[in-house]
Write a structure and sequence with these properties.
- There is one protein chain.
- The protein contains 1 helix and 13 strands.
- It is mainly beta.
- The longest helix is centred in the N-terminal third of the chain and has 19 residues.
- The chain is globular, with a radius of gyration of 19 Å.
Length: 189
């Protein structure tokens, strides 16, 4: 009986691990990359039928609406915000960006236990539609990041009605040392 219970428990743990997705594969960079000076690809993963691309680049000002009066204002990075966290959810069939989705970013610095989280705002820029926020991140260390792309709220053709009916969750790994990326996630695609 004890042996059967152990087998059932083991199978349940395997099923849980498969449901959550495998841990991202680590790619050690041959030379450190500086995301405070240029865009660095942290990883690309397939999740719930979409490609989730995650990049970090230098923090930048964003032109955003303020309040209910549709006033627009330039928002400069706050003190200490060095990084621009950028996520691009992509339809792999048409290779177009997915709009009208709520995108959440969570990262934990495993060395310090500090967490960074926030909702990424939709933005149009030089790279097209993406979701973003400026951040200081949480210093040097090894990060586990989770990006959740909510169910898009746009209409679909009947032939595409089953697409993106549940949130897409992608996991990424990166390591910062003195603001330099030295490890990223091996792109799945």
């Amino acid at each position: 009986m004890k042996r059967i219970f152990s087998l059932i428990l083991g199978l349940a743990l395997v099923a849980q691990a498969l449901a959550q997705g495998a841990a991202p594969k680590v790619k050690v960079l041959s030379t450190p990359e500086d995301p405070t000076k240029k865009t660095v690809l942290v990883g690309r993963a397939m999740a719930a039928g979409m490609v989730v691309m995650f990049e970090i680049e230098p923090a930048k000002a964003m032109w955003m609406p303020v309040g209910k009066q549709s006033k627009w204002m330039e928002h400069a990075p706050r003190a200490g915000e060095k990084f621009h966290v950028e996520v691009k959810p992509i339809d792999p069939k048409s290779n177009t960006r997915i709009s009208f989705a709520k995108v959440l970013f969570e990262a934990v610095n495993k060395d310090t236990g500090k967490k960074v989280a926030g909702e990424l705002m939709p933005m149009w820029g030089g790279s097209g539609l993406h979701y973003t926020m400026n951040s200081a991140l949480a210093g040097s260390g090894t990060y586990e990041a989770k990006i959740t792309v909510g169910v898009p709220t746009f209409g679909r053709a009947p032939s595409d009605k089953e697409m993106w009916t549940k949130p897409a969750i992608a996991s990424f790994h990166f390591k910062l040392k003195d603001d330099q990326l030295i490890e990223v996630t091996e792109p799945e695609l």
